[in-house]
From TrEMBL:
Sorted UniProt keywords: Hydrolase, Metal-binding, Protease, Signal, Zinc
GO terms classed as biological process: proteolysis
Region (Disordered): 323-362
Name of the featured protein: Hydrolase
Gene3D superfamilies linked: Galactose-binding domain-like, Zn peptidases
Length: 479
């Protein structure tokens, strides 16, 4: 957890009597409608993950700090575990003041991709120590939950995704990078984000985030879970100190748990939870002594079971079905460019009504190339292919002309699909075989059912002699 610029405000305490009344007044529709899941996530396995993170730190200068080899080794190790379990993993690389860092995103490739349930934790430590409670504990907890979910045979209704964030200790850099680079359409699909940061403090408390009104339903499910286990809890406003803040800023419902950092446990809290009054919840917070000996395994066990409860429950929650587009409906927005560059991104200029090249219909089109010099231009749009699509396809009309001669390829237009970190070229047009008569091309998108992809047209020209590629009246249909 990131150290605050000023001391954390006093923790808001709710008595159990008040809690019971508050929960009893909630309607059943406030949370998941099914019987709440109650998986037993293995604390033994989770502790083994923490021992591995300790070993990684020991082998890399005593820490797993952003920009240091211990952090990249942590990412690689966690990725290997998730890959082996069948997750689709993506590593995002980004720059920070301390050097290169990485986010690791793991998605269980089942369930409705239009409804995403996400759990996350930061994987980096501070530079002064191995960061086993802060935040190896949260990372190991969601890792073991992810592995248990994969092994359970559970058939999720929704898409379940896990995020392991880099550079949290530098100011939530990784989680901010993730949400800021998530297309708006994909942000809208994230139904809830659950954050777990420091869940095994050696003098623990049991805190539930209470700083996002949009996430009250998830918050209430956590408190109801703790009530059912007879575990006293308190609300806490962590004031943007952890990675849920990046999601909260976009209006995404968030919730999470926390066992305390440098704050002092009160006498009332010690009476309720045990432990030492007048001492920090974690006396090794941001210190070299935050090792695999700096853990309360009972707190860890209780919190990872809470993580499992939330992942199982929200993975099965009925968010309703998005209406399927009718057969033949065009999933692309502004497909004929008649609204200009609206709904398309890329290089400024190619979407034009310049009369130098005709449109297929109307007056606007995407005119890529035609510069007669070394250049690259592109236009793109993201689209979600329904998992139930029978024969999804991309169609477009294209005409081209060139001043090049002969059969050597100098200039190209590539029709590409970007899916995660992978870019696939579906078709390539070139200066060879150009035609000033429009022709329709159709490409198969069946490999992308159930995925959100970016369709991209990229033109590249060499240093001399122009080739113009003009594309118009695009469409993506489900079959």
């Amino acid at each position: 957890m990131r150290r605050p610029s000023r001391r954390l405000a006093a923790i808001t305490v709710a008595s159990l009597t008040t809690v019971t009344l508050a929960v009893s007044t909630q309607t059943a529709s406030a949370g998941p409608t099914a019987t709440l899941a109650d998986p037993d996530i293995s604390v033994t396995n989770t502790k083994a993950h923490l021992d591995q993170l300790q070993s990684i730190a020991d082998a890399n200068g005593g820490n797993r700090y952003t920009g240091k080899p211990g952090y990249k080794a942590s990412v690689d190790w966690v990725k290997g575990k998730l890959d082996a379990a069948g997750y689709t993993t993506t590593v995002q690389q980004f720059s920070t003041s301390a050097g290169t860092s990485y986010n690791l995103i793991a998605e269980w490739p089942h369930g409705d991709a239009n409804h995403v349930v996400m759990a996350g934790a930061h994987l980096d430590s501070v530079s002064r120590g191995p960061g086993i409670n802060d935040n190896g504990s949260g990372s190991a907890g969601i890792l073991e939950t992810a592995l248990a979910y994969a092994a359970s045979g559970e058939t999720p209704k929704n898409r379940v995704r896990f995020g392991f964030w880099g550079a949290e200790e530098l100011g939530l850099v990784g989680s901010k990078y993730y949400v800021n680079n998530l297309p708006a359409a994909d942000r809208d699909k994230v139904e809830v984000y659950l954050n777990f940061d420091m869940i095994a403090s050696p003098n623990p408390g049991y805190f539930v985030y209470d700083d996002n009104p949009a996430g009250d339903s998830a918050r209430d499910d956590l408190t109801t879970y703790f009530d059912g286990k007879s575990i006293p809890w308190e609300y806490i406003d962590v004031q943007g100190r952890s990675d849920h803040a990046a999601f909260r800023s976009l209006g995404i419902p968030t919730a999470g748990t926390f066992t305390g950092a440098e704050e002092t446990k009160t006498s009332a809290q010690a009476k309720k939870w045990g432990g030492e009054a007048g001492a920090a919840f974690d006396p090794c917070y941001h210190s070299a002594c935050d090792t695999n000996e700096n853990l309360d395994l009972t707190a860890l066990d209780r919190n990872i079971d809470a993580i499992g409860h939330m992942v199982w429950t929200y993975g099965a929650k009925d968010y309703g079905s998005d209406p399927e587009p009718p057969t033949g409906a065009n999933l692309l927005k502004n497909p004929g460019f008649e609204s200009g560059a609206v709904d398309w991104t890329g290089t400024s200029g190619p979407i034009t009504k310049d009369s130098g090249r005709p449109a297929h219909s109307g007056t606007w089109k995407a005119w890529l190339g035609g510069n007669g010099r070394t250049s690259s231009e592109n236009v793109s749009q993201s689209v979600t292919i329904p998992a139930t699509a029978t024969a999804p396809k991309l169609s477009y009309w294209i005409r081209s002309d060139t001043n090049e001669t002969g059969s050597t390829v100098y200039d190209t237009l590539k029709v590409q699909v970007v899916s995660g970190t992978s870019t696939t070229t579906l078709a390539t047009h070139s200066n060879v075989g150009t035609s000033s008569t429009y022709a329709q091309k159709t490409l198969d998108l069946s490999a992308y059912k159930g995925k959100t992809i970016t369709l991209k047209l990229t033109a590249s020209e060499d240093s001399s002699l122009q080739t113009s590629f003009v594309v118009d009246d695009t469409s993506v249909t489900v079959g």
